[in-house]
Amino acid sequence: MISLITLCSSNKALQECKWHRISSWVGHRERPSDLRSEAKARALSPARPNPDRKAQTPPRLDRTLPRSPESPPPSLRRSQPPAMAPVDPHSYTDGAHPVTAHASLAFYLDFSASAIHASALVTLSAPHSGDLLLDTRALAVHSASTTTEAADPIPLALAADADPVLGSALTLTLPPDTSSFLLTFSTSPDASALQWLSPPQTASGLPFVFSQCQSIHARSIFPCHDTPAARITYSLLLNVPARLSAVAAARHVARRDPVSSDHRGACDDALWCAPGRIVEEFQMAQCVPPYLFAFAAGAIGSRDLGPRTRVYAEGGDTLLDDAAREFAGVEDMVKVGESLFGPYDWERFDLLVLPPSFPYGGMENPRMVFLTPTVIKGDAAGAQVVAHELAHSWTGNLITNKTNEDFWLNEGFTTYAERRIVEVVQGEERAALNMGIGWRGLNRMMERFKDNMEFTKLKPKMAGIDPDDVYSEVPYEKGFQFLWRIERQIGRPAFDEFLKKYIATFKFQSIDTETFLEFLKANVPGIENQVDLDVWIEGTGIPPDAMEPDSATYRKICTLAAEFKSGKIPSEDEVADWSGQEWELYLENLSTDVEASQVTALDERYKLSESRDYEVKVAFLQLAIPTGCRCYFNEVEKCLKQVGRMKYLRPLYSSLAKCSEEEKMLAKRIFSEAHEFYHPIARSVAESILSKHG
To answer: What is the rounded distance in angstroms from the CA atom of residue 456 to the CA atom of residue 449?
Structure first.
């Protein structure tokens, strides 16, 4: 077993960032190609902004990749991992080598080319000699050099063929005892982490760009050890047009004029310091996994919510005012989180409402949570999404899963923590509804993965599997159920004490499931005799001691849903006090074996297909599509063209693709017209669905 010692930085501000071991991971499988495999395999090389500088031409790096006779389902995209024992099945990071401790990044944002021209001054966790591997995807790497006065070139080699999941390994051959080095590079217009929106695609009429690096997309922005096992600190300079502003998941230092010494070869001095450009400067002094690197630039405004909370948005005053009302209670949520889980260690908790193409409900970037505008519903229900992202400040950001095989450590803990916050802020009934929706989602995932139950495990084997392909509610809801099972066994007071000790022990570290289980057994003696830990972690499906939530409201909604099959539609009195969440739970519990006439009758009474709440709207449309109710196809098309959130794209495209040839053709036409609107991650998921179902 090879080990790697990682440190975050020597900076005094990072002393609480502890040294920790990263155990190597072994295990490889083969994968077939598909639409996205071809897209990911294209390593584009955008032109450099300095025509006088000659880029180093990377020699070919041949690898012998192991193969396995195992044959995966054609719907799953597999990669061939490198011929070594990596610390993470989704990274080229070598366990025998030091990793990045700090990166000083200078980015020139070229909106006309949809590219970033950049430099990265990389500081390693320890001096190194010889080969060092970094993760990249579709990057044009121009040069590598030492940071000595002579700035000697460093030989570099980029893998000849990009792996469809991992991207390309960048190998640097470092001189003896190298502690730092300088890279210059450019991103591709097809960078999987970035979405560039043209002026017609934005509310302001000005260009906009944002990043989304989870799970393994930071490598498409800058060469890095793109594994959550290797935490980094960083500084960031964003050179943008002066009419725009920028935000990042880091402390904002200054907005200032560009200086030629800033960029360290990212581009020409004349380009960096051109009239009409401005530099936004940021610093992240706490160590974070690379997937939490995040920024956005555009016509961004803001509103203060509290002493350490602010909401930002591109979309004008109306959207900002709506967002400020929706999230008015965020400061109180932070205080509740601190009372439950300990001090909030990130200084600020700001929110950025992104354009509707953002592929997730929220992204927990520290200091700057990214949100879809679909969470703004006008009834403060969107605060539950914010509660989830806030909970990540302790579970996910402070303590991080070491690899994507341990993803439940992030999301299961955070789902549990979210519901504890909701319980205090919005009441036990509301938390129970949240749990009920999650329970239905978990059961739905059993159907989705019925042909490959590996992905119903809390710790699945994911070598060669793209995390985006198997992203699901399993780590969230099965992880929640596991922790709730432990709480029921030992009691809430004891579990609260355990949870606080867990967070305090592992803060600013990345750990695996085995480390958690060792800690659990050491701090809750005998728990392995009371709860079958192996069944919960390694077993497929839903364990027999998982529990459906129970509350008066939940029971009432489930009863009404059961009655729908016999033709009974809830009366107006029965739904008088329902919000979007009650309707979502009702629709999630309806049998899929219903008649078209029942669906249209329900909609005629309650206009669910026209709901402003996308959770309700999509749940209804997902029910309607298999019944052949073509009268709703216009609403389906509008939804798929107006919102890029994968939570909505996946079920709607899947429902259409599983129906008749007419629905399949409709799905393909909509995608052909809407795909440029989607973020690259969402675009690839939709491509995969359409490819799977022909």
So the answer is: 7
- The dihedral of CA 182, 187, 191, 197: what is its sign? positive
Rounded CA gap, 614 and 375, in Å? 9
Select which of 476, 586, 632, 653 is catalytic.
Answer: 476
Query: Cα 89–91–92 angle (5° rounding)?
Result: 110
164 contacts 40 by C-beta, under 8 angstroms: yes
Amino acid at residue number 472: S
User: Looking at residue 49, what is its pLDDT?
Assistant: 44
Give the Cα separation of 39 and 683 in Å (integer).
11
pLDDT at 380 over 80: no
If you average pLDDT over residues 185-192, what whole number do you get? 97
What does each C-alpha distance from 199 to 107, 264, 374 come to in angstroms?
A: 21, 30, 21
> Residue 678 CA to chain centroid, in angstroms?
15
Residues 263-322 have pLDDT tens digits of 999 999 999 999 999 999 999 999 999 999 999 999 999 999 999 999 999 989 999 999
Q: How many angstroms separate the CA atoms of 694 and 386, rounded?
A: 37
The three-state (H, E, C) secondary structure of 510-555, written as one string: EECHHHHHHHHHHHCCCHHHHCCHHHHHHCCCCCCCCCCCCCHHHH
Q: What is the pLDDT of residue 4?
A: 36
Choosing from 30, 364, 389, 588, the catalytic residue is 389
User: What is the C-alpha to C-alpha distance for residues 667 and 551, in angstroms, rounded to an integer?
Assistant: 39
Name the DSSP class of 478.
I
Residue length of the chain: 694
388-416: burial string, b at 16+ Cβ within 10 Å, e else: bbbbbbbbbbbbbbbbbbbbbbbbbbbbb
pLDDT of residue 175: 98
The Cα–Cα gap between 352 and 144 comes to: 35
Number of H helices and E strands in the chain, helices first, is: 20, 22
CA distance 687 to 621: 20
- Give the tokens for residue 198: 């043209």
Q: Is 26's pLDDT higher than 80?
A: no
Active site residue 234: no
Predicted pLDDT of residue 694 = 73
Nearest C-alpha neighbor of 383 from the set 330, 322, 437: 330
* Nearest C-alpha neighbor of 654 from the set 609, 592, 597, 599: 592
pTM of the model: 0.88
Confidence at 84, pLDDT banded by 50, 70, 90: low
Q: Please check whether residue 417 is in contact with residue 103, taking contact to mean a CB–CB distance below 8 angstroms.
A: no
DSSP character string of 81-138: --SS-BSSTT---BTTS--EEEEEEEEEEETTTTEEEEEEEEEEEEEEEEEEEEEESS
Six token digits for residue 271: 């380009």
What is the rounded distance in angstroms from the CA atom of residue 645 to the CA atom of residue 29? 30
| Catalytic (active site) residue 476 | yes
For the ranges 63-72, 325-334, 416-425, 488-497, the lowest mean pLDDT is seen at: 63-72
Q: Helices 646-657 & 614-624, crossing angle to 10 degrees? A: 10
Q: How far apart (Å, rounded) are the C-alpha atoms in residues 578 and 475?
A: 29
Contacts 24+ apart (CB under 8 A), 147-153: 147/121, 147/180, 147/181, 147/182, 151/182, 153/56
Residue with tokens 């060669």: 464
